[in-house]
Amino acid sequence: xxxxxxxxxxxxxxxxxxxxxxxxxxxxxxxxxxxxxxxxxxxxxxxxxxxxxxxxxxxxxxxxxxxxxxxxxxxxxxxxxxxxxxxxxxxxxxxxxxxxxxxxxxxxxxxxxxxxxxxxxxxxxxxxxxxxxxxxxxxxxxxxxxxxxxxxxxxxxxxxxxxxxxxxxxxxxxxxxxxxxxxxxxxxxxxxxxxxxxxxxxxxxxxxxxxxxxxxxxxxxxxxxxxxxxxxxxxxxxxxxxxxxxxxxxxxxxxxxxxxxxxxxxxxxxxxxxxxxxxxxxxxxxxxxxxxxxxx
Length: 296
Known about the structure:
Layout: E1 2-8, H1 21-29, E2 33-39, E3 55-60, H2 62-74, E4 81-85, H3 91-96, H4 102-111, E5 113-124, E6 131-134, E7 137-141, H5 146-149, H6 152-158, H7 161-167, E8 177-182, E9 187-198, E10 202-203, E11 206-207, E12 219-225, H8 230-241, E13 249-254, E14 256-260, E15 267-269, E16 272-273, E17 279-292
Parallel strand pairs: 1-2, 1-3, 3-4
Antiparallel strand pairs: 5-6, 5-17, 7-9, 7-15, 8-9, 8-14, 9-12, 10-11, 12-13, 14-17, 15-16
Helix pairs in contact: 1-4
């Protein structure tokens, strides 16, 4: 008999997992897998109480997955992970191809197969040991730290629109970041209003990298240049989303990136607080074992 742990965040999304835990446990029991549910606590490492198991299922959003992945990686553990998307955006689960329906996603895990997925590592250059991992996106600049400030009760009430409501407040503090960027191939200066380093395809379910892959060993990156008026910058980004390239949006692919700026700027990692500049971002190719839906 296989043994697995279900780490679930009962506050993720709009309490989507509530009332479904027992049914999920029964589904796995029916296929000879003992699934032990464990309510996730964000004030301790969940692997303190996780004993021997064949895999761990995470029920939550991108922030929940990020927390569990960081807890596991900092312990040096290598345990296959599976995802039941119950958060607000669920970008990583979407990139994996997981159903938004809790029960269907559980069935995908039962019938799925383990694959190796890339993982991102962000390290503060001038502070050794200050590092964090990410599964979907590392970002900085306008709107990118919005999810950190969005109240949980607002997300529960209006879902993804809560991010938009909170993001509009950031227009008052809009500013460019004087940024020097070094990739595997080049070093360049770019006055950046927004920077996105994606392992997946979407940010807040907005399709930005339709050709990206979780298994290619590189990041897909977008940098939006600061224009005189915010309206011009917004138009530049919209044009990119609709497939029109402009000089104000720079796109690169790289497995290693270094960012240096004289400014003190906040960063975001999968909706959670990130590390400070100067920093480097590294793609850890195939570092995570994840249960993915079977491809026909």
